[in-house]
Structures are given as C-alpha cells and as structure tokens.
Amino acid sequence: NNIYITILKEKTGESNTTNISITPLNGFNSPVTLSVQNQSPSLPSGSVVSFSPGGGTSQTLNSPYAGGSDFKVSIGPGLTSSQQYTLTVQGVDGGLINTTDVILNVLVKNPGWQEI
C-alpha cells in the first residue's frame, strides 16, 4: 500500500487514503483493532494517522469486516525535504497479531520564482 502527500515547504498536508481490509480465514469472526505500531523514520511532530470511519488513531472492525478501514496521514508543519516513511499497521485480536506496511511518500515543493 502506498499513499502520497505533496506539500509546500514547511506547510501541512494530508495524504490520499488506502484501504486496510480484513480477510477472515477458517471461520474467524472476532473484532480486530487496527493501529500504527511503528514509523520509520518517525513522522514530524504534529503529524496524525487516522482510520475511518471514525477518524481515530485506531479502529476496531467487527465481523463481517465489510469495507475495511480507510487509512490516511496528516503531516505536521516543518518538513523541509521530501521523505519516504514506512508505517506498520497492526491488527490485533486477543492472541492473533498481523501487520502490513504502508509506504508514505511525502514530496516537498519549495515555492519560488524566476526572472523571465
């Protein structure tokens, strides 16, 4: 899964969304809680990850898991150069844990002008 943000230097921005889906196997039907467990490198201060519907930093999906969860990232101010981040999204149900990586590509554009 890849998501993208284009921002002007030192401004904030919001990514597009990617869907995190749950595929039950062998009769599995327990609630699954999704959250981000790792960021590499760490997101800038003021950044927020969100799952929707609901918009929280975590989300619990119930069987039959229809539609999954839409995941996006809002980048806080202060980023001055383009960066790629790996965000590990974890799904947990009691003793079961599964993960998937979401790659966040942030393109920082520096506003400017030129003489013509």
UniProtKB/TrEMBL annotation:
<feature type="compositionally biased region" description="Low complexity">
    <location>
        <begin position="40"/>
        <end position="52"/>
    </location>
</feature>
<protein>
    <submittedName>
        <fullName>Uncharacterized protein</fullName>
    </submittedName>
</protein>
<feature type="region of interest" description="Disordered">
    <location>
        <begin position="36"/>
        <end position="63"/>
    </location>
</feature>
